[in-house]
């Protein structure tokens, strides 16, 4: 075996040497590995911190009661939880249909049109918009015209933040539907509308929903846009059997912001517990989006 | 049969389901096909052969107005289908495609279950009868039933390439179109799957009329009753396809009238 040779030359050694190329390769792999660990540190350390600081206060009482006043003990953030759900819901009702339909336009109806170029540019710019400006926009549009801080104003501000995410992910998702599949549908005698409703949307829907859920998760955690639009409230949205939709509305994010700066231990504990709840909501939404985002066929 | 480059030449021997007189087909300013007259006869397989870029796929896709989806497509001539011009005034291309079905080069099942794939056209046409029966008939017609009868709820995309193509054929025949256009249906398949689809085509012509584009001359000799040979004219500085010769397959391959045809089938083409 030792005498084996390639074209008269002595056989080359095939042993791995830890020098030169292989050394650089090993170092680079190690660096990439370390960076992957670093990238996952923030989430887990935040989770750990929140569970340590907020976990002990987490019970049915904090989820169902109103925020306490100054020196009061106990209490909770039930109204803020409801407020967050209501405002994210309003935002979703606005941003999801508009975003998906705009995504259909960008990907199927007029991908090369002038309008598409403008809309795509607007959406990409909007994703980088400081979220506080979304609040300013909704303040001008809703708060000034209706004359009060309200849940719908907060919802509009959040919708402005969600819209570009939904538009761009819907466009990407629907663009991925193979042309061959669309051709097959046209070949069966589908109109363009039928191709979109029966083939493009159902085929791209899992990926569209992933984008939708990520947008919802982002909106649920936003504070800045709600500061000028929904403000905060110490009362329920539904008070004494009537729905007070057009008044200041509490949200988890703003409650955390308000309470974390207070000089009372009770409020600070509640802020920790609310943070934990908010992160759990975002986490659940992300997990759900991964499950529904799995292609069914 | 005559060499049918002349529009008036005889097509009366058997009933022509389609009479396709393709004077000029443009994509923008580019003339892709000129002066091709192809009759498609009932319960026969008409094979289109010719070198790449000779416009045979363009011709096929013009017959059910699939090319209307291409920007800049322009058509001069007529495609008579059961007495009506497919390109006539007020004709809806969507309706045309429901009567002239298509099978594509790449198997392209929808991302839904096998059953839903085959039922798609029936539901599209609001078929009133028992959809299950028709799906079974179509899958049997496409020689796929025995392989999939226990997994009709499984995704069509989970099948092998050859099975996917037979699924697409089942999907196309479920609505019982008058004519089936097949655009190189075997080019993405292995030889065994190819053989199965070829056997299927011969089986299908009893009930359907088929126009088949193929780049495989052996396939044309195996399945086509009539063969149309297209070539490319590069004299005007562009590449324009046209029909050189059309006739019974044995004649085209055994005793071609045109030198171009003889050169092509004997492998002497540039």
Helix and strand succession of chain B?
A: EEEHEEHEHHHHEHEHEEHH
Overall CATH class of the domain at 81-249 in chain A = Mainly Alpha
Strand tally of chain B is: 10
In whole angstroms, the N-to-C terminal distance of chain B is: 28 Å
| Mean pLDDT over the residues of chain A | 89
- Classification by helices and strands of chain A: mainly alpha
CATH architecture of chain B: 3-Layer(aba) Sandwich
The number of E-state strands of chain A comes to: 4
CATH-defined topology of chain B: Rossmann fold
* Fourth CATH level, the homologous superfamily of chain B: P-loop containing nucleotide triphosphate hydrolases
Strand order of the largest sheet of chain A: 1-2
Would you kindly provide a written description of the structure presented here, covering whatever features stand out?
- The complex is a heterodimer of chains A (about 300) and B (about 270).
- With about 300 residues, chain A is an all-alpha fold.
- Helices cover about 70% and strands about 5% of the residues of chain A.
- Chain A contains eleven helices and four strands.
- In chain A, the strands form two sheets. In chain A, strands 1-2 form a two-stranded antiparallel sheet. Chain A has a two-stranded antiparallel ribbon with strand order 3-4.
- In chain A, strand 3 (about 240) and strand 4 (about 240-245) form a beta hairpin.
- With about 270 residues, chain B is an alpha/beta fold.
- Chain B has a single domain (about 15-265), classed as P-loop containing nucleotide triphosphate hydrolases (Rossmann fold), CATH 3.40.50.300.
- Chain B is built from ten helices and ten strands.
- In chain B, strands 5-4-1-2-10-9-3-8-7-6 form a ten-stranded mixed sheet, sandwiched between helices.
- Residues about 1-15 of chain B have low confidence and may be disordered.
């Amino acid at each position: 075996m030792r005498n084996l040779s390639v074209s008269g030359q002595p056989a080359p050694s095939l042993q791995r040497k830890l020098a030169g190329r292989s050394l650089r390769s090993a170092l680079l792999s190690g660096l990439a590995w370390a960076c992957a660990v670093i990238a996952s540190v923030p989430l887990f350390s935040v989770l750990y911190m929140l569970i340590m600081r907020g976990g002990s206060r987490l019970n049915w009482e904090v989820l169902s009661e109103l925020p306490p006043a100054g020196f009061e003990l106990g209490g909770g953030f039930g109204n803020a939880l409801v407020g967050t759900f209501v405002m994210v819901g309003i935002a979703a009702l606005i941003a999801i249909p508009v975003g998906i339909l705009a995504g259909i336009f960008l990907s199927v109806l007029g991908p090369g049109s002038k309008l598409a170029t403008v809309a795509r540019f607007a959406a990409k710019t909007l994703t980088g918009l400081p979220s506080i400006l979304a609040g300013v926009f909704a303040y001008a549009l809703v708060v000034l015209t209706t004359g009060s801080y309200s849940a719908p104003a907060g919802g509009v501000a959040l919708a402005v933040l969600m819209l570009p995410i939904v538009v761009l992910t819907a466009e990407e998702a629907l663009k991925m539907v193979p042309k061959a599949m669309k051709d097959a549908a046209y070949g069966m005698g589908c109109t363009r509308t039928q191709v979109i409703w029966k083939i493009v949307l159902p085929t791209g829907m899992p990926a569209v929903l992933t984008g939708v859920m990520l947008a919802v998760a982002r909106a649920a955690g936003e504070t800045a846009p709600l500061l000028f639009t929904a403000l905060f409230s110490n009362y329920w949205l539904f008070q004494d059997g009537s729905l007070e939709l057009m008044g200041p509305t509490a949200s988890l994010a703003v409650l955390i912001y308000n309470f974390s700066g207070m000089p009372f231990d009770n409020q600070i504990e509640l802020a920790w517990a609310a943070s934990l709840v908010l992160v759990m909501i975002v986490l659940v939404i992300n997990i759900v989006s991964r499950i529904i985002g799995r292609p069914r066929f | 049969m005559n060499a049918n480059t002349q529009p008036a030449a005889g097509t009366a021997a058997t009933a022509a389901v389609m009479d396709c007189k393709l004077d000029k087909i443009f994509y923008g300013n580019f003339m892709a096909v000129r002066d091709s007259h192809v009759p498609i006869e009932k319960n026969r397989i008409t094979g289109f052969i010719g070198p790449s870029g000779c416009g045979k796929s363009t011709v096929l896709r013009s017959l059910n107005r699939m090319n209307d989806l291409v920007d800049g497509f322009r058509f001069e001539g007529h495609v008579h289908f059961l007495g009506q011009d497919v390109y006539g005034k007020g004709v809806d291309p969507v309706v045309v495609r429901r009567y002239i079905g298509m099978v594509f080069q790449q198997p392209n099942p929808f991302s839904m279950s096998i059953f839903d794939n085959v039922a798609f056209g029936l539901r599209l046409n609001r078929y009133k009868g028992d959809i299950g029966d028709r799906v079974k008939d179509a899958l049997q017609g496409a020689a796929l039933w025995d392989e999939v009868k226990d997994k009709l709820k499984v995704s069509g995309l989970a099948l092998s390439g050859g099975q996917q193509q037979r699924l697409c054929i089942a999907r196309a025949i479920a609505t019982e179109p008058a004519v089936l256009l097949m655009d190189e249906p075997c080019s993405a398949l292995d030889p065994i799957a190819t053989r199965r689809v070829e056997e299927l085509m011969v089986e299908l012509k009893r009930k359907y009329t088929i126009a088949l584009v193929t780049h495989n001359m052996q396939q044309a000799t195996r399945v086509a009753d009539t063969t149309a040979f297209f070539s490319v004219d590069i004299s005007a500085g562009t590449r324009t396809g046209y029909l050189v010769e059309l006739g019974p397959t044995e004649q085209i391959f055994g005793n071609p009238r045109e030198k171009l045809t003889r050169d092509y089938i004997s492998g002497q083409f540039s």
